[in-house]
Fold these 4 entries.
Entry 1:
Amino acid sequence: MFKNHLKIAWRSLKKQPFFTFLNTFGLAVGMAGGLLISLFIYDELSFDNMFTDADRIYRIDVENKNGGEINRYASVAPLLGPTLHRDYSQIEMVTRFRNSNSKLIRRNDVQQNVKEDHVIGVDTTFFDMFGLELLVGDTQTALKDANTLILTKTAAEKHFGLNDALGQHLLVDNEEVYTVTGVIEDMPKNSFLRNHTVFISMASFDDAESIRWSNWNFPTFIKLIPNANIESLQTPLSTIYETYMIPWIQTFNPGYTIEDFRERRKTTGNYMKWSTIALPDIHLYSNDIEDELSPNSDIQNVYILSFIGIFLILLACVNFMNLSTAHSLKRAKEVGIRKTLGSDRLGLIRQFLTEAGLVSFVSLLLAIVIGVVFLPFFNELSGKAISIPFGSPFFWLVLIFATILLGLFSGSYPAFFLSRFMPVKVLKGGGESSVGGGKIRNSLVVFQFAISVFLIISTLVVFQQLEFIQNKDLGFQKDQVLILEDTDAAGNQLMAFKQEVKQLGQVKQASLSSFLPTPSARSTITFFAEGDSLSNGKIFGKWKVDHDYVSTLDMEIIAGRDFDRQFTTDSTAIILNESAVAMFDIEPNQAIGMRITNDFAPRDKGNMTFFTVIGVIKNFHFESLRNNINAMSLSLGSNSNRMVVKLNAGDFSKTISSIEDIWNAIAPGQPFNYYFMDDSFNETYKAEQRLGRIFITFTILSILIACLGLFGLAAFNAEKRTKEIGVRKVLGASINQITYKLTIDFLKLVGVAILISMPLGWYAMNRWLEDFSYRIEIGWQVFALAAFLAIIISIVTVSYQSIKAAVVNPIKSLRTE
Amino acid sequence: MLLQLKNISKWVQSGGQKVFLLKDINFWVNEGDFISIMGPSGSGKSTLLNIIGMLDNANEGSYTFLDESVLSLKEKHRANLYKQYIGFVFQAYHLIDELTVKENLEMPLLYKKYGASERKALVADMLDRFNIVGKKDLFPSQLSGGQQQLVGVARALIASPKLILADEPTGNLNSKQGEEIMDIFTQLNKEGVTIIQVTHSEKNMNYGSRVINLLDGEIV
């Protein structure tokens, strides 16, 4: 019987190539989309699970409220990890990382440096903590001594062969000699260490044993003993401030009691809160936090994509249902015959499910082909390197199971619907009136278009917000700004290099600083106004810049003045931004001349170093527009590994090669790395741009699927009404009237869909926009445009069939009966 | 007695009024009968045939088929009953377009869960009997109307029903083809198969042993 079902399914599909194509293709597109999205989500959810004991490993984070600001850090004081380990037995092990900048690395006997972007300090427990093995070297001793490091396989092969690396020396940043004590496999692509290539022993960092509880530079991971509950650390974490930090502050501030600190906190509302996050949660649940070891994703994106994936598959299923039931006119007779020949309803249901199953398996094959073809595009879209795991039995099992499920689901309604036909009615040739199901089909069309319009609205809003970000006045000029990296490699020739660059005709201005409004170095320090006690510190950014910084980036001074070479006292001058001024509860004008310090020395000792505020700079955006503008300051300093060059309009490539020539003359053998600031700025919004691209892609897909369905339905509708159209024409209806009549029915459905999707789209996109401190308002134009697009698309889709039916000579159509 | 209809009525509601399709029909059929139901269009011939074939239900009255009270049976039982005892022949043949002649013939056997070898034997037998062995792999659209109806009759017969219900079996055929079909019916009847046919034609009526005339849903 099953063979018979399969046979008749195959033949009836073959007999209707057009409908079969619409059905299979629509389903395949939906499945391919679902497949790719599932792989993406699987990858996102798999992050950091590969580490042994990942379920027992946690990172300690800290949240600091100071004044109006709340900052969150993924790094803590160097002492915190070891201290907790010492005091609480449920902690089995602690591993600290030490954030570090990119480094230039070369062999002693080689001139050319290799730039490693992700260099990091680690404790000796690193291997035990994450269950890692060395390819070469001994995990017990590898990271014990100062000035030792281990390399990933890829990094090692840049300098030596894999087996020759052990014991070799490397020169880091042209000054310090490190010994290679091990080579480790490259870090998994879906781990929080995926970018890191060089691991330096913690003993190499001076501040690793520092007792300063305010030095938050150490991402710290703890591993609990088996069966310990993370809840048991709640109390210890909540008492860190009083148990460890206050005693430390009291060492240089002996007059204060714990009560004083409590009182102080109560009046200011300031706090520090430590918390833990499970290792596998970091990738998706840790955001808006500084000092992450690798950029994270957001569970919200997983949700959004899941929804889109489910939508796509639903759309495809709905298409299948619609086309199959619409098409049932042709199948009705068969149902009638089978029933009179003795088939019961169950048999028919089985038959139609077989047919749906067959279609979904053919679609699966097509979907895999589509998936393979579009995988590179999807990887670019999502910023991943996903491959389809053809070798995995689990993958096939899931795929086949999902396909069967999909077949059953999309076949369920048609099977139910078709098997219901009464033979007496359908065999009499009652035609369309006996088929019915129109209402459900209409609702399904409404459903499809509601989703499509919703996606159109979402896409428009995402792009408007992106547009808004790109064109917002940031408080500095990011265009025509070139950034040279690792300029400190020029050593004492750096100033000479800057002078020569400035003399180039195409260069407007140049400045040396590691700190940029786009992602770069950051440093936050506690400042005190003159006369303020140690417990009244304000934490804000301290950027070291040079005299030309403000003018190079076209920032605006709203009070006081810029740094000036005329004033030798400017070495202790400081410029605050508006947010920093606001922290002291004063107006910008009042800030000028104020003296502030970052000295923790006891206040009665005198000889403290003060900075004098000489200017206030207008707030400029140096983080994502998701965030408010934090407080920061500019002060003069040297030792800069970046140079910012403002160019005049013109041939940039020529200018860049001129600058490179100067660089090669001054610092031979050092890499010349550069990028444009607006590119780097765009990097900050990669997530949003990615989301935008994903939206637009899947919007187009969903519209495509919906249109396939609509096209099929229109064809069916025209076919069903052939006789009616013929009669109308004989009675004098014009082609236009008939086209209108056939089209308007569908437009009504699209209209209902638009009405349904608008409030949903408005609500969802407002939720999304809430994440941005700086955002657009959703205007009526968005909805109007979305509605307009949906209507135009559906008119184009439907009218082809309508016109085709309308121009047929009535003699022909009346004869068909 | 094969079947008996007592006081069968069927109606539809139209504008608050009952419009009778069949009204107070009484008749019986013995095994081996060849009955023709006659009457103008709309007189209720097909409705009556459908009720006899259990494809449709009467609103009133009783219907006994082989001592079973059909109207009180559950859908499933009724299906089993007609599956086992009744074969249908239609004016428009109603072969399944996607299946070959051979496969069309096989269809009722599949529903009756015959084994593969038995199916094969019965199909071969039928093909032989109706002289259509050469056509067994053709699809219905490749046959003439007469040939399609031959297949239709063969299909109705293949599971050896007691009763064949034929709704204007020659209506779409030319007279020569029609005669062939009617000859086959006569032959079958001689072999003991009960036949009820609905027909317009006096000529076909004469093949039968008994005539029931319908007018406006009533036997006259």
Entry 2:
Amino acid sequence: MTVIAIALIASTLGAAPAGAPDAAVLLRDSDRARGALPQGVTWTVELTSEEEGTRKAKTMLVKARGVDALAETIAPPRSKGELVLFNDRALWFVKPGLRRPVSISARQRFQGDASNGDIASTNYARDYTGVVAGEDVVGGEPAWRLDLVARASDVTYDKIRYWVAKRSHLAIKAEFLTVGGDLFKTATFEYGNRLRVGGETVDFVSRMVIRDAMGTGSVTTLTFSSPKAETHAPSVFNVNNVVR
Amino acid sequence: MDEALIRLEAVTKTYRLGETTVPALRGVSLDLHPGEFTALVGPSGSGKSTLLNLVGCIDEPDTGRVSVEGVDVSTLSDDARSRLRNRRIGFIFQSFNLVPVLDVRENVELPLLVHERLPVAERRERVAQALADVGLADFARHPPDKLSGGQRQRVAIARALVTRPILVLADEPTANLDSETAARILDLMVELNERRKVTFLFSTHDEKLMARVARHVHIRDGLIEKDGVARGA
Amino acid sequence: MTGGWRIAVRNLSRNRRRNVATGLAIAVGYASLVILGGYSNYAYEGMGALTVYLQRFGHVSIHKPGGLARAAAKPSAYSFTAEEQRAIAGLLAADPRVELAGRYLRAGGLAGNGCKSVPFVATGVEPEVEQRLLVHPRVQAWAPERARPVEGAALSGAAGEEAQAALAVGYAKKLRKHPSAAEPTSGTAPLDCAAGRADGDPWIQLAAIDFDGGFNALDARVTSLYRAVLYEEDKTSLMTDLPTLQRLLATDRVTSFAVYLRDPEDAPAVARDLAGSLERAGIAAELHRFDDPAASPYYTGTLAMTWAIVGFVGILVVIVAAISMLNAMTLTILERTRELATFRSLGFTRRQVTGLFLREATALTALGIAAGLGLGLLVSAAVGAAHVEIEPSGIAGTIPLRLVPTPAVCVGAAIAYFPCSLAATWLAVRRSVGRPVVQLLTAVTA
């Protein structure tokens, strides 16, 4: 896997457009707007999906800090109190009354087309090796096109084609690919939120729309709201503390 | 003479021996009549055995005709000839040809096994009669290999008689026996010929045995040399 | 011809060494057919019991269309509603050929031990059906060792609120869980996952996407370990009582019915009748018989393979025995040319003489078969007593090797033998018997 990744990088490195910034920098910058901030941050995300004619919605309060995150379901009432804990790449599902947390996978479906790895902060800089493979205009916005290859098998997607705006360094579009390179989901991002953190105001993701690319026509929307900087004690993210 | 049991008409037979052909019979005509006791005399290679085989319907002539009770044998199928042998002809072999796994009684019974519809009681009766005729009633349960040569040939004679044939053929029946036993076997055959009116044709090259036989047919080089009734018989 | 059998049997005592050798060839060959037949019968019955009862497939299974292949991956799309379940149960209850029917829910998910999670394919079973299934005479006759839990007690469903799970041995090993683990004294102690200490208690967490599309989880007590039938099932399968799995999936639906019949022979007819009545009831369903290659490829594949091997070896064995007979009879007829001539001279027809040899071959074959039957049954009994375990490919773990010859197998093998023996004999004697009598009489071989 590593050998293939390195070979891929080597072969595409030469093709990087002139003047392109370092892919790692683009990923780090775009990750910040998707929740991966070294300081603590809290936001709310509402996940709606439409499948076979039924609409489903779930609202979560997400607390994130660096590589850790905790997503707590606050609606609907049936799911209230369910937690997904992110410790670096380890994910835990916790439910009130459950004796132990359940180790879950980032790539497992959470709801609709959203995978567990999509619902909290995004750390593509940590999880992927990226190269700038080209440049495109996406929705009127000039963007670098990055090819991302997973560094490990437990990350959300094996391969991602990722468009990061040249001007803002915000990710505006993603295509999620299987290990064989087949497209199976696409996502678009909007950044209508502002977050004041570390003395500056940064853009923060407001919508992620995930569309199935295999013909079911299903759409899952994640609406992010009220992001605010907040200090989270490390114990918030300790798996042994979240089980009550 | 239409009452002939067996009639051979201008019969020829040659054998192929490798590259050469050996004429065994070169035009033989012969009639055998009921109740006759005939000796077929000749040196070895004279055609005696061939003649007996033709009469016994186990061989066919190249030319000429063999008839049994007026029926041309060549017109019969193999099965019909088998049946003819079984019902009409008894065989006595030089080396007895008894079946070693069968006891004396069973050997004698052998030709009756293919007599369809012969009641078991009659079969037993006939076997007992045949054994009595050859003086072996006490040896019924003996296996053949416990018997002397003379006794074995008596078993063979009983076997030949048990079907009540019209003709008994004996090919050198005494050749494997000492002279005293041979004489007794011949006496037995003569006695049976007289008492049971069985027709006998036997081959021999032993002149001594011919004394008590009425009709002598001399054969040499495939031809009948002399056919006549012996003096003093 | 009368007395032919007597002559034939007497003749067996001649050249005893050769006849013993030929008889032994027949006996060993026949014994091997009995043994092979016993094995294939065991494979047939054993595989049948495993497939029908222990894989909970039933003689006939009822799925939603496409459900056989896909229900476990997406149970919500291939499940019967409560109303449909009642209708189907009514149909099955009314059919006297049906001995027992079970409802099953199959679904994939994850089970966790507090440290890691392992994917599973779970089967929700009705405990009251299980109790009858596991003691079924066919299971007890052919696969009793696999019906017994390896550890713990079978799912009882009597634990009330507490969810129970039975894990396949290989799956339990991955989760490091077993039923006899000590109950935690107070609450749940933090786990030291890095040290691999996950086996602190008998509890696991079952998690799955429920029928509403949400992620759900519940605690279940591991009450038993069982030996799965297939190798791949051993690594992935677990069973719970049906209500527990339904609770996990937030549904009252099931994905299949297994129909257990009093007489397996009824399977085609029952499947046909059920298909008709389900259609009339307006329930879309697909029915599969346990011997349907699409439904149970392992069962049908294994049996096809077994039959092929048995057939192939059987044919070889019969051919070897026939060649041995051909050889023996060729020598016999050479030795007995003079005798053959005698019989022919005395008026036996060709057919009658041939009949004598055929009788002899028949008697020898019968003796060989009798000896072979004894030998085969002896070996079968010895193998059974030796408790040999074999590891058939595709099967999880080992199964005891048993040879269970049936009368049908023994009779069938014997029936295969005689024509071959007789044909070989006929071939051997045909030429000699066909020769003119005078040639036989003067032949010098005797």
Entry 3:
Amino acid sequence: MKGYWRKIQIATSTLRDGLKITSKHIMNARFQRTNLVPEADNYFEKENAIFTVQYPKEKLPVPDHGRYKLHNEIEDCIVCDKCAKVCPVDCIEIEPIRSVNEIGKTSDGTPKRIHAAKFNIDMAKCCFCGLCTTVCPTECLTMTDDYDFSAYDFEEHNMPFANMTPLEILEKKKELEEFNKQKEAANAKKKEVVPKATGARPNVGGAKPTFKPRVPGAKPKIASKPQTPGKDSSDEKEKTENKQKSVFKPRIQPKKTAKPVLKPKPKDSGDKE
Amino acid sequence: MYAFLFFLNFLLIYTVFAVYAERKLSAFIQDRYGPMETGYYGMLQTVADLLKLIQKEDIVPFKSDKTLFKPAPIIIFVAVFAGFAVLPLTSGFNGSQAQIGVFYLLAIVSLDVVGILMAGWGSNSKYALFGAMRSVAQIISYEIPLGLMVVCVIMISQTLNLQEIAFQQGIWWYNFAEGGENYLFGVKALGIETTNIGGFLTWNIFRSPLLLIGFVIFFISSLAESNRAPFDIPEAESELVGGFHVEYSGFRWSMIMLAEYGMMLLVSFLAAILFLGGWNSLLPNIGALKLSEWTSGVPGTIAGHLWGAFWLISKALLLVLVQMWVRWTFPRMRLDQLMNLSWKYLTPASILLVLLSAVWRLLMI
């Protein structure tokens, strides 16, 4: 019998406590939780207020350079291809066109020598690791605070950053082609005269050591590219791609023919040794 | 006829806003906003939901017992709505002034169980059947304390007529019957007459303080009667999906929903009339300050109607709000706990209260 009354007493007191708690919450519903940045001291303290953030209308503060959408400041980009190489998921697609002469300087004074015919970052593939931003030598590739970029089509996630028109691309390619031809001719002449004179080969002079390892590595990549992205790209793209093929083929072929020209080079090093 | 039209429309409008209020209240309890997008502060959310609901296909399961399945929502709703017939909304406005008002009300509301059983059985679904069986077991169990509490009030009031019960709890008793007089706490020996003071002092819970406990028991039982949490095991969304109405859709489902909210309102009206003074004012006359008279017009006049409707509806809606508050506070009870509460705690307490009320009645005369 004692237990009987005790149960009634426990039930009444616990029910009353429960109602007290919920009524407190109803009262606190007048307030809205303040938007705290994660650095705030009281970030983890529980606030007695409405927790909801009405998302598109209100946003919680995020760091300026969090792991969100990537952005490339193409004016500052030297198209060094480091980001594309370091990317673990290969979401950055770059098509470089070497410039005949220096294009200009980036905001930090680095000379730009390569045009970016294509600089696409596919945010649908991106794993937001941030490696590309750390390797970027001119800090033009950054992660922004924009995290809401959902789209109806995957294609919309493939963001182009290059700002060259097709005409410009074509022009630059032609320029380069002509330059290469001239150079070849010059090389051939030189070879006739002095077979050893290979030092003058890359017009970009000082930058040669940095670009040297890249060019052979990137070449097969570019050569194989037209097959894979060719299916999803638009007609226009395909056209340019086809053009690339025709443009690049001769570019590679002269190389092959030029190989004998390069051959002396290891001999060069051999000589050094 | 007026009462029919009034209550039907009132019920529909009330349901729309009660669903909204419930969603808002639950949201506030859980530190959320609730509906915010449709209309100002989400006010039109239920209207939009309702428009969607009546456009939905009326699905009748292939293997269901159609003769039981189809009319069940109508029976459930009619059983609940018929209860409104005897409610005295104001001093001169009610559907029926039947002398056996309360008795009729309890009887007709019990038909609800038949509708629920029809829905559960006719659905030919295990969840629906479980829900229906639980509902029947629960409603039958809780009708005992509920009925006994009504008996307590009847013993104090000596009438089954709801309008008379309402008249007794205010300053206008003499308008209904000669010679009625109220004493503080109903004890005549105290010699403090409260007939002309009115206000909350003449409410049934003050005419006989025992009825304060009675009111609590009535409220708990009425929660079970309307299948509301913490006694919502017939619906039990998390285990039975939706209980007895799991197979319903579209308009039939909305009828069941309407009946549930109607039931909440009906038991709240009944509680307000039986225990909280019906359409009488909350404020008592204090000497020259005739607050009770000022806040309740003379019966029969327009002011009387308006004040009466105001007081009764606000009391009922307040109780509905408390029902919602309780729902979003307490967890659902297990079936055995439910039966335990009814048979081991509420029923003995009710029987005791009936006995004590009889004794109290002796003090009143």
Entry 4:
Amino acid sequence: MSRTTDPGVTRAEYCAVACAEVFRGDAEVMASAFGTAPALGARLARLTFAPDLVLTDGDAALVDGAPPLGARPDSLVLESHMPYRRVFDVVWSGRRNLIMMASQIDRTGNQNISAIGPWDHPKAQLVGVRGAPGNTVNHPTSYWVPNHSPRSFVEQVDVVSGVGYARAAEAGPSATRFHEIRFVISNLGVFDFATPDRVMRLASVHPGVTVDEVVAATGFELVVPDEVPDTRQPTAEELELLRTVLDPRSVRDREVPA
Amino acid sequence: MADKRTTLEEFVGELADGMTIGIGGWGSRRKPMAAVRAILRSDLSDLTVVSYGGPDVGLLCAAGKVAKVVYGFVTLDSIPTDPHFKAARQSGAVEAMEVDEGMFYLGLLAAAQRVPFLPTRSGLGSDVLRVNPSLRTVRSPYDDGEELVAMPALRLDAAVVHVNRADAAGSGQVLGPDPFFDELFLGAADRRFVTTEQVVPTEQLAAGGPLQSLCVSRLLTDAVIETPGGAHFTACVPDYGRDEGFQKEYVAAAGDPDAWAAFHARFLAVDEAGYQAATREAADERAAARAAKEGA
């Protein structure tokens, strides 16, 4: 089956729009977004369909509006103080929607940013679990993986940092009460857990990508519906915002090449 | 008021092998690096380091000072990981207690409040409980019956933090945007050290910034050490930003034993004044190299 690709829209732009969709329906929650496509997605959402979203300056403040990538600090309009200690108050209150990155992600939505290999002698120590365990049991969490491959989409992650559906269920009601893995977005497509047993499902492919490519790049058995839609097209307004306001220097194309 | 001013030498003299030491700051930001360098020059060993980790953890691991690290992450911010910490973990040279960064906060808070643990949802379902088998859960005694993680108090033998200004009695001022968890590190510790860019008369503290910048009270301080440039090469805004050029040199040198030996000889086998002079000289060399490149 051949798919039409709008010749004008880059892969990175589809990724940014897919990340924006993470925030659809959100009212006043703190949007935290790591990586270029997520940062653009949160800003797009704030400027279009989620105008009450609260963005951060990436340091210790909440900002008004949606500043361009790399905006000078003195150009930002700050609206509140948000040092790390207060960030935890927000995390634990649930008033946050987050896109984190994942070095590994697995079939039931566990994420790993801690270590690759056995715990006592890891083949690679990564940054550490950071806030992933707490984030995932306190507020909606999604993941951004810009390098979809069998090494990043694995059957079982080595160290469960962000908690997936099966592990949350095993841990009991205190773990599932506020748990939601909303989407996984990669450079190839969008994934969710809208299956009876809460395993990863291919929700859409970015235009120009085939379902077979996604399946081949995934290291576990992905649920693939009979009809897989394309990731939606950006609107004219979204393209204008991305290209002229938020990211005129096309930083996005360095994260996901055209 | 007592004059709590002392020296880096006396700071190190109060530490002992096997101690648990908390280090303030966050990642590669406002780390008490002069105090860390003083530990590097000492013969201390077998330390447990408790830190929102940055190059403090990496340098102490590289020097073989560390038996165990308690952390939620170790990062250089603009560079995702610290090469020495990675190497120490991958060789099994250090024991790791890796926890969620919010659990870490509650561990310090519990210690500061003198309670044995604080309950949290964070950690449930994750491998934090698998890789730290000593961690326990606790059931709510109320009708909800929720089962939560009981984060144990992270009690510290000593803590050291770095602030922009302090007075001689140990009131500290953070002029940057985030006080991080420094007051909790101090509150969790038996011996509490504050290093500062500058010791100023008490009346200059409130004159130098808003009241909420005076976030370390002398209730939390046993000793004050003036260490200008004492957070270098981490950020200490507004006094100075991170020295990204030097941080890159640090990472590059870590990848090669000969380069690391040269880095060590030039920057770490010298006293604090020698370090500050050598890093200024290195900055001038990088600037000259850039100018030559642009001129070519």
